[in-house]
């Protein structure tokens, strides 16, 4: 069976994400995928990446990449404001597309991309990789098997790491709400995708967002920027099951709880703990107690669930999504997180923003 030939738009060997997360993930699935090409913001940048990573093709422009007959899957890993243009071009060329989350800069872009993907009939997927975390998969099984009985409520408190008092120049754009790459869309959005897989769809959701740190120091340049992206997010809602939900995401890191997701039920309780609030790339640990037990204890994930997956958590989770993508391309299934799934997640985040603005009188 021939390998799925992958072309990246936005891949640098010294970048923060694509080379450290996607490339190791795809190497772990070498029977299914071969990364063959790259297109960056300039031809020179693309050539440097191709040479450094041993890729066959360095395309002068993203349009050249999406038009190539030698590319089966276009992976878009650029900043959010460029997603719409580049994903649209790939879809118009009839290519399968895998796009980083958030899919678009806001709900309307996501809806348009989802509609175009449906029209073209291609595999169009989004990287909400907490959904493929082994620990989340096992947690979903525990809930489905009745470990906590009927779920009554679920609560999250988390620190986002970023969106605190300091940043670096490469990540300063995250503090600009207009970019669409915010604490709401990235750490909270990724985690909410995992929550939905475990506990089901929401009947309703609302939020309140507050900006407490409007001045942020850029440590490697010494400048101070004005932040517009909220650093406090409070959310409440009700699942279709009737269970209650609440969450508080905080910018920066605290000296206390950095990530705690608790699920309370009629027969037991489960806690998911981690070092910070990016559920998509944090090492998650499960604890629980049920029946006559009075104290939480570790819930070990069966070792066999990790077999064949990368040892490091980030490529392991990203690879979990790519394994689903491969199945969808080869078998005509739709098991990977799709653009339609992404639209529903965007809708939830949009509802949080709209209700927050209403409460604030904006």
Automatic annotation (TrEMBL):
Domain of life (superkingdom): Bacteria
Keywords: Oxidoreductase
Gfo/Idh/MocA-like oxidoreductase N-terminal domain segment(s): 4-127
Enzyme Commission number(s): 1.1.1.292
Keyword Oxidoreductase: yes
UniProt domain Gal80p-like C-terminal: residue ranges: 138-273
Transmembrane segments: none
InterPro entries (UniProt xref): Gal80p-like_C, Gfo/Idh/MocA-like_OxRdtase_N, Gfo/Idh/MocA_oxidoreduct, NAD(P)-bd_dom_sf
GO molecular function list: 1,5-anhydro-D-fructose reductase (1,5-anhydro-D-mannitol-forming) activity; nucleotide binding
EC category name: oxidoreductase
PANTHER family hit by this protein: CONSERVED EXPRESSED OXIDOREDUCTASE (EUROFUNG), GALACTOSE_LACTOSE METABOLISM REGULATORY PROTEIN GAL80
Protein's recorded name: 1,5-anhydro-D-fructose reductase
Species of the source: Pseudodesulfovibrio hydrargyri
Taxonomic path: Bacteria, Pseudomonadati, Thermodesulfobacteriota, Desulfovibrionia, Desulfovibrionales
């Amino acid at each position: 069976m021939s390998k799925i030939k992958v072309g990246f738009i936005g891949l640098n060997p010294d970048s923060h994400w694509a080379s450290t997360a996607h490339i190791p993930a795809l190497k772990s699935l070498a029977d299914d995928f071969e990364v063959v090409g790259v297109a960056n913001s300039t031809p020179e940048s693309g050539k440097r990446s191709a040479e450094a990573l041993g890729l066959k093709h360095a395309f002068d422009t993203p349009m050249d990449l999406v038009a190539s007959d030698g590319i089966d899957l276009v992976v878009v890993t650029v900043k959010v404001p460029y997603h719409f243009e580049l994903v649209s071009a790939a879809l118009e060329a009839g290519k399968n597309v895998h796009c980083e989350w958030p899919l678009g800069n806001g709900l309307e872009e996501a809806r348009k991309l989802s509609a175009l993907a449906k029209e073209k009939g291609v595999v169009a997927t989004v990287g909400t990789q907490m959904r493929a975390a082994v620990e989340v998969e096992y947690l979903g099984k525990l809930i489905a098997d009745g470990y906590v009985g009927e779920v009554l409520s679920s609560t999250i408190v988390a620190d986002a790491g970023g969106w605190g008092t300091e940043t670096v120049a490469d990540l300063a754009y995250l503090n600009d709400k207009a970019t669409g790459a915010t604490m709401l869309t990235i750490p909270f959005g990724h985690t909410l995708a995992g929550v939905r897989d475990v506990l089901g769809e929401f009947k309703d959701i609302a939020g309140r967002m507050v900006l407490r740190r409007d001045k942020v120091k850029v440590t490697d340049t010494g400048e101070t920027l004005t932040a517009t992206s909220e650093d406090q997010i409070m959310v409440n809602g009700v699942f279709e099951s009737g269970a209650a939900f609440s969450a508080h995401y905080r910018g920066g890191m605290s000296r206390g709880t950095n990530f705690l997701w608790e699920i309370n039920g009629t027969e037991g309780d489960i806690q998911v703990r981690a070092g910070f609030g990016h559920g998509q790339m944090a090492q998650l640990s499960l604890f629980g107690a049920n029946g006559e037990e009075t104290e939480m204890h570790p819930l070990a994930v069966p070792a066999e669930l990790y077999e064949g997956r990368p040892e490091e958590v980030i490529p392991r989770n990203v690879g979990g999504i790519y394994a689903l993508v491969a199945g969808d391309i080869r078998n005509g299934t739709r098991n990977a997180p799709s653009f339609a799934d992404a639209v529903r997640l965007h809708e939830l985040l949009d509802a949080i923003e709209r209700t927050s603005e209403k409460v604030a009188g904006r």
